[in-house]
């Protein structure tokens, strides 16, 4: 039998009491490790984190907690190769794709360590300036932000076992709020290992960070009014979280990051041969293939003027044809596997569903694999679909509301010189995490931006002047907001120090100016 991963709760490593779930290598099919959380005393685990971890963290200042994040960054950097090995075997990712998760997580943690230094040796934050409540300035209102005296429960998706941990834990720990992370079962190994390294290094006080690997049963039941829960995953599970009594009756604060049908938009005024078209083609190819398309931010819909539809289809197909698929251990392979058999089947089912309303412009799902057995490996090549018929209310509607969580995108033409038409089509996604816009005219681009910002958490503009330095449509940078309205879950994460708001309570203090001055 394979090794059973321990959970870290109540300041101790504890094994689940059951046989557990076995994690597999999605390329070789071999058994890797088991995870199990059954039989843990969850009430004790949450109480320990909430009281012991919370009070120890709150006794420190922001700058002291930022220094801990900095120390944790160094520990993770020192163990980076072990994380790459786990990722290759458990997620089936090539090195570049592993980097998005592992290095993306470490970078996010280090960014919060740096931002936190500037918050200084204080225990709460001011929110704005005092405001007079009467003609006489003696009596005023000042808003304060204080860390919530609860625990932060993170329920995470399988596709980012590292980044998904640190993008949530960094702002929470910096705020002084202890963390309990429940990674997705399929890829829990990497999250557990990173927590273990940080725990073994003795950086955070007891109870500051806990990890529970295995099923989610009972976790939400532990939440109390001052706790928070941050969920990343599918819209279906999000609905279960939102309707749990902890949220509906105890007002536990909840943040949801769900799925999204993100768009890339080529502006109407770009002529054939424009550098901007190349930039679009490169970015769409990258987004379709990085992590085998298993990114919540990946481009799913590509909107181009109808006169350029055929040209863009050809250019994208030519690029996609160069992608080698198979065993990530082979250096010639550009794209590895999807995470497991279930996801492999879900991608195939999703393709069948979309194909009923679209044309296949590039078929990669039957591509030959390098160094991998197609009967075993969960590897699937990229497929580009297209539809000239995505405008009506009853035709080709699936492209706007179906997220195939794999290397799949659909090309959608809009009427020539009709930006409004393109924007209407994008809005049919019902709210997304990110849209990227490709153009060379700064004025035209700036006019399009406010048309997208109420329905997207992030708008990424790619123009020739930033081609070499732009950070990528799908890469979530800690400085920028992550999350989106509507279908995307309505959540907000990151965005620099804005992320700390979720872990703080805001209160208005009404009092004498002399008292308020003492709070400075
Ligand atoms: P999922 O099936 O919804 O699972 C997400 C997490 O919820 C897992 O940890 C899962 O645990 C847990 N869970 C399942 N049932 C639960 C329940 N009844 N109560 C509490 N927790 C429960 O999603 P996934 O397949 O891992 O992730 C893929 C999806 O996530 C995609 O749709 C993708 O777009 C989305 N995603 C969004 C973002 C974003 O930031 N917006 C980022 C990444 C992924 P088990 O694994 O143990 O079942």
Question: What is this entry, summarized?
Answer:
The protein has helices at residues 42-58, 62-78, 80-91, 95-117, 163-175, 188-200, 235-242, 245-248, 275-289, 309-320, 341-355, 398-401, 419-427, 442-452, 513-518, and strands spanning 7-9, 12-14, 21-24, 31-35, 125-132, 139-147, 152-155, 179-182, 209-211, 228-232, 253-257, 262-266, 299-305, 325-326, 359-362, 369-370, 383-386, 408-414, 432-438, 456-462, 481-482, 493-494, 504-512.
Shape: globular
Quaternary structure:
single chain
Strand order across the largest sheet = 15-17-18-13-12-19-20
Number of helices: 15
What keywords describe this structure?
single chain, 520 residues, alpha/beta, seven-stranded mixed beta sheet, 23 strands, binds NADP nicotinamide-adenine-dinucleotide phosphate
Please provide a written account of the structure:
The chain has 520 residues and is an alpha/beta fold. Helix content is 34%, strand content 21%. The protein contains 15 helices and 23 strands. The chain has helices at 42-58, 62-78, 80-91, 95-117, 163-175, 188-200, 235-242, 245-248, 275-289, 309-320, 341-355, 398-401, 419-427, 442-452, 513-518; strands spanning 7-9, 12-14, 21-24, 31-35, 125-132, 139-147, 152-155, 179-182, 209-211, 228-232, 253-257, 262-266, 299-305, 325-326, 359-362, 369-370, 383-386, 408-414, 432-438, 456-462, 481-482, 493-494, 504-512. The protein has a seven-stranded mixed beta sheet, with helices on both faces. A five-stranded parallel beta sheet has the order 9-8-7-10-11, sandwiched between helices. A three-stranded antiparallel beta sheet has the order 5-6-23. The longest helix has 23 residues, at 95-117. Bound molecules: NADP nicotinamide-adenine-dinucleotide phosphate. The site of NADP nicotinamide-adenine-dinucleotide phosphate (NAP) has 26 residues, from α7.
